[in-house]
Amino acid sequence: MASRPGMLRRSSGWLDEHVEWSRPPYRITDRPEELDLDRIHEFLRGSYWAHGVPRETVERSVRHSLNLGLFQDDRQVGFARVVSDRATFAYLADVFVLEEARGQGLGRWLVETALAHPDLQGLRRWLLATRDAHALYRKVGFTSLADPTILMTIHDPDIYLR
Questions:
Q1: 29, 88, 111, 152: which has the fewest Cβ within 10 Å?
Q2: What pLDDT is attached to residue 15?
Q3: Domain total for the chain?
């Protein structure tokens, strides 16, 4: 694997290997034990896409995903979650940067880091859903669906409110 500037490899087993990117005073890590689940839950439950989400649901989603935490020193200021088989497909979800850290290109860096993660190389398809961040995602290569008729959905936007 080619090394990216600022990337440090740690540990040694498949799925036990962790990576970290650095852009002082910020860093991005995929180490699950560093995530601030209280902060992640607080943000997501107020978001338009996961409004009212229970903490148990956030915990379960994090447990079964590849997660990237964006930190300023030791304080988490951003997050991205990737649902993937790590072979053919990935869904980028729950991307956010806290208000006080916005305007510095950190959201783009977080998404670029997800796309560059060594466990997510060679995938055939990446998907995401967004209501208001199309410009950000276009900058890193996402496009609107060429043929939306090939995808289907079951969508229950009020599930967390019941």
A1: 152
A2: 53
A3: 1
DSSP secondary structure string for all residues of 70-125:
EEETTEEEEEEEEEE-SSSEEEEEEEEE-GGG-SSSHHHHHHHHHHH-GGGTT-SE
User: For residue 57, is it within any domain?
Assistant: yes
> Which tens digits make up the pLDDT trace of 73-101?
999 999 999 999 999 999 999 999 999 99
Residue 153, class by beta-carbon neighbours within 10 Å (0-12 exposed, 13-18 middle, 19+ buried)?
Answer: exposed
CA distances from 8 to 12, 27, 155 (A): 12, 11, 38
Per-residue pLDDT tens digits for 108-126? 999 999 999 999 999 999 9
Q: Do 58 and 86 form a contact (C-beta atoms < 8 A)?
A: no
Output helix, strand, coil percentages for the chain, rounded to the nearest 5.
30, 25, 40
CATH number at residue 153: 3.40.630.30
Residue 2 lies in a domain: no
Give the domain range for residue 150.
Answer: 8-161
